[in-house]
Design goal:
- By secondary structure, the protein is an alpha+beta fold.
- Helix content is 40%, strand content 13%.
- It contains nine helices and nine strands.
- Helix 5 runs parallel beside helix 9, helix 6 crosses helix 8 and helix 8 runs antiparallel to helix 9.
- The protein is globular.
- The N terminus is likely disordered.
Amino acid sequence: MATAPRPRTTTRDPEDLARRLTAWLGTRLPGAKATGVTVPASNGMSSETLLFDLEHPEAPCTACALRLAADPAAYTVFPVYDMARQYRTLRLVAERTDVPVPRVLWLEEDPGPLGAPFFVMERVAGRVPPDVMPYTYEGSWLHGASDAEREHLEAATVGLLARLHDQVPLTEAEFLAPSGVQDALRRHVTAQRAYYAWVIDGLPRSPLIEAAFDRLAELWPREAGEPVLSWGDARIGNIVYDGFDPVAVLDWEMAALAPREVDLGWLVYLHRFFHDLTVASGQRGLPDFLRRDRVEARYARLTGHTPRDMEFHTLYAALRHAIVMLRVAYRQVHFGEAAVPADPDTLILHHDSLRAMVQGTYWTR
């Protein structure tokens, strides 16, 4: 991961975006200017982030961030980018919980001004555990922290999930539920099957992903659990920290109604994903951080809800991540950055750990 070229994340011209953004801001605050427009190096491969300073005597804030739906010409990671849904979710969380989220300022659903819908929010200062190089590698600020500091960050992060799940009234989050008569968990998994079918349309299938879906069916919970507002991308790499305290929860594009364990499984597995990569590189990683047993116990103490069927939910997290990884790999193929190998499963960075989960041996290592 240290030397591989980073996949292309956009086909847009930052200077052109800056000019168009300034023109659009003038329709909201006459005379307003966007200065210092940058696309951060950590920009993901889904919705894009622009950072800029807002110059105007009546500006609601000076440091802003803009979330722009993915460029349709850039072989998008997801089939749909509903920016109004993300904007509404952020407002709901801000209004009905004490979970810290950026203050949203404006929503633009017309793709005309910047080529796709977007929303603008206040930029929150702090630091984020990096994906590249992963925070589990030596040299990361989190890796270099003390055990007590990492314990503090872990406790605060699990606390965020507990409060999110407990505080959002379900009736106010119904807009996140897709239509259908299935329970929330079945709807969630059905949506993932549809996403996988979209990813492989006209391309090689993944026997490993399909085996994981089969294993999910064997592990299906007897009781799915009541749905809550699920963040969807619940991982520390989507949180801004001031020191070791969370000050902003980011990236709500995968929010949904789902059982609590969907977020818990994602939180636990996404750390293991980075830890496993680190161990494979010859480093120790962070084996005692965000351990499954501690996360489950802490969440139970905070909420009174003991997490159930976590073998199912950590497998489901690894499966969901595998579908995203396969799409990212096929995206690299599309841009000529990679070729399709004889075994498409090798395109999934964590294929060994996913296979171990399917075989039921991962958590016994």
